Task: structure prediction
Amino acid sequence: MPDFRAHRHPVLAVRCPDCGKAPGLWCIRRSGPRANELHLSRRAEADSVFAEQHGPEASIERDGDGWTINPHGRAGIRPQAEDA
Ligand SMILES: [Zn+2]
Result:
Protein backbone atom coordinates (compact mmCIF):
# COMPACT_ATOMS: atom_id res chain seq x y z
CA MET A 1 0.00 0.00 0.00
CA PRO A 2 1.49 3.36 -1.00
CA ASP A 3 2.54 5.57 1.89
CA PHE A 4 1.94 9.14 0.86
CA ARG A 5 3.95 10.49 3.79
CA ALA A 6 7.10 8.51 3.01
CA HIS A 7 8.51 10.62 0.19
CA ARG A 8 9.62 14.16 -0.41
CA HIS A 9 6.51 14.60 -2.54
CA PRO A 10 3.26 12.69 -1.92
CA VAL A 11 2.86 11.90 -5.64
CA LEU A 12 6.06 9.84 -5.45
CA ALA A 13 4.14 7.19 -3.54
CA VAL A 14 2.79 5.69 -6.75
CA ARG A 15 4.49 4.36 -9.89
CA CYS A 16 4.32 6.73 -12.86
CA PRO A 17 1.98 5.48 -15.58
CA ASP A 18 3.73 7.77 -18.05
CA CYS A 19 7.49 7.22 -17.69
CA GLY A 20 7.26 4.08 -15.54
CA LYS A 21 9.36 5.41 -12.65
CA ALA A 22 8.97 3.32 -9.50
CA PRO A 23 7.58 4.75 -6.26
CA GLY A 24 10.09 7.04 -4.59
CA LEU A 25 11.84 7.96 -7.85
CA TRP A 26 11.36 11.27 -9.59
CA CYS A 27 9.90 11.31 -13.13
CA ILE A 28 12.09 11.24 -16.22
CA ARG A 29 11.44 13.55 -19.09
CA ARG A 30 12.76 12.96 -22.58
CA SER A 31 13.56 16.62 -23.08
CA GLY A 32 16.26 16.83 -20.45
CA PRO A 33 18.42 14.99 -17.95
CA ARG A 34 16.33 16.06 -15.01
CA ALA A 35 12.60 16.55 -14.55
CA ASN A 36 11.45 19.35 -12.36
CA GLU A 37 7.87 18.29 -12.64
CA LEU A 38 5.99 15.08 -12.13
CA HIS A 39 3.83 13.75 -14.92
CA LEU A 40 0.17 14.73 -14.87
CA SER A 41 -0.94 11.12 -15.19
CA ARG A 42 1.07 10.30 -12.07
CA ARG A 43 -0.55 13.12 -10.15
CA ALA A 44 -3.97 11.86 -11.23
CA GLU A 45 -3.05 8.32 -10.22
CA ALA A 46 -1.74 9.43 -6.83
CA ASP A 47 -4.85 11.49 -6.28
CA SER A 48 -7.16 8.59 -6.98
CA VAL A 49 -5.20 6.09 -4.86
CA PHE A 50 -5.02 8.63 -2.04
CA ALA A 51 -8.80 9.14 -2.12
CA GLU A 52 -9.30 5.37 -2.12
CA GLN A 53 -7.01 4.97 0.87
CA HIS A 54 -8.01 7.93 2.98
CA GLY A 55 -11.45 8.88 1.68
CA PRO A 56 -12.67 11.60 -0.66
CA GLU A 57 -12.49 14.27 2.04
CA ALA A 58 -8.87 13.72 3.00
CA SER A 59 -5.94 15.89 2.11
CA ILE A 60 -2.22 15.77 2.68
CA GLU A 61 -0.43 18.73 4.15
CA ARG A 62 3.14 19.84 4.70
CA ASP A 63 4.22 19.28 8.29
CA GLY A 64 7.73 20.49 9.01
CA ASP A 65 10.03 18.20 7.05
CA GLY A 66 7.31 15.66 6.37
CA TRP A 67 3.68 15.26 5.49
CA THR A 68 0.58 14.74 7.52
CA ILE A 69 -2.82 13.44 6.47
CA ASN A 70 -5.87 15.46 7.33
CA PRO A 71 -8.91 13.17 7.09
CA HIS A 72 -11.23 16.08 6.44
CA GLY A 73 -9.06 18.47 4.48
CA ARG A 74 -11.09 17.72 1.35
CA ALA A 75 -8.29 18.83 -0.93
CA GLY A 76 -6.82 15.57 -2.16
CA ILE A 77 -3.17 15.92 -3.00
CA ARG A 78 -3.60 19.17 -4.81
CA PRO A 79 -3.21 22.37 -2.86
CA GLN A 80 -6.52 24.15 -2.88
CA ALA A 81 -7.28 27.77 -2.20
CA GLU A 82 -10.98 27.97 -2.98
CA ASP A 83 -13.80 26.81 -0.77
CA ALA A 84 -12.21 28.39 2.30
ZN1 LIG B 1 6.60 10.19 -14.95
